[in-house]
Amino acid sequence: MRFRAFTLIELLVVIAIIAILAAILYPVFSQAREKARAAACLSNCRQMGIAVQMYVQDYDETMPTVRMMWQGSPHPPAPSWLEQLQPYVRTRLLQRCPSDNASTWADNPPRVSSYGLNAYFDPFHPPYGNHMQPRPMALATVYSPARCIYIAELAEVNRRNGRFIKGDHFMPMYWGNPPRVVDSMMNMALWDDATQTPTTLAITRHHGGANYVFVDGHAKWHRFEQTFQQVRGQQPHVDWYDPMQTD
């Protein structure tokens, strides 16, 4: 019996077809994986939203605090909101988004979470807080809980200065032009005026957007421009971060 082998040209054609099919299918598989990661992240956010609601009910409708050392403050740093919510979530896996590619989780000090609390709600941060006389914010002071963002996804590094992000909060009061709170160093570090975007949030982590937790406890995916818009030189006409915003 005579056996007919494949010629070199035939083998190259088969390899080329396989390569083309792989190139076509790889983006599909990548998108499917990212959708799964985004869904897991949204589940994390929903559970954190429920935990916040439980915490608020147990503590006379006052909000958790962030960990921040203020120079000259007579008060020791408050425990992080992550620590305060721990009894209600019982797992630290909620603190990490599956799409978070930070390399600093094992550092000393390490990255503590993929998610940050809105510092407008912290008793130490301006314009509503004071590090010398901190007063926790009450839920009743929030004008629109269903439209006010409480937790957002943190970027791995600050796009402005390249520093690794290892904190537990973000500070939208320094965003914009003009910002709600004027501090030239903070404004420059936290806001990219050219792109009109914050430098410390992962605003495009999931399909060009990110997951957010709102004060009323619900979580939802949004593009950043849905949450904050401003014409330079004017006050923001869309601001889902300031709890006292009335329009």
Radius of gyration: 23 Å
Q: What is the overall number of helices?
A: 4
Give the helix level as a range of percent.
25-40%
Mean pLDDT: 88
**What topology, given as strand order, has the largest sheet?**
3-1-2-6-7
Number of strands: 9
First-last Cα distance:
86 Å
Q: How does the helix and strand content classify structurally?
A: alpha+beta
Parts with pLDDT < 50 across at least 5 consecutive residues: none
What can be said about the biggest beta sheet? 5 strands, mixed
Number of domains: 1
Instruction: Tell the overall outline.
Output: elongated
Strand content: 5-15%
Order of helices and strands: HHEEEHEEEEHEE
Task: Write a concise synopsis of the structure shown.
The protein has one domain (8-239). It is 29% helix and 11% strand.
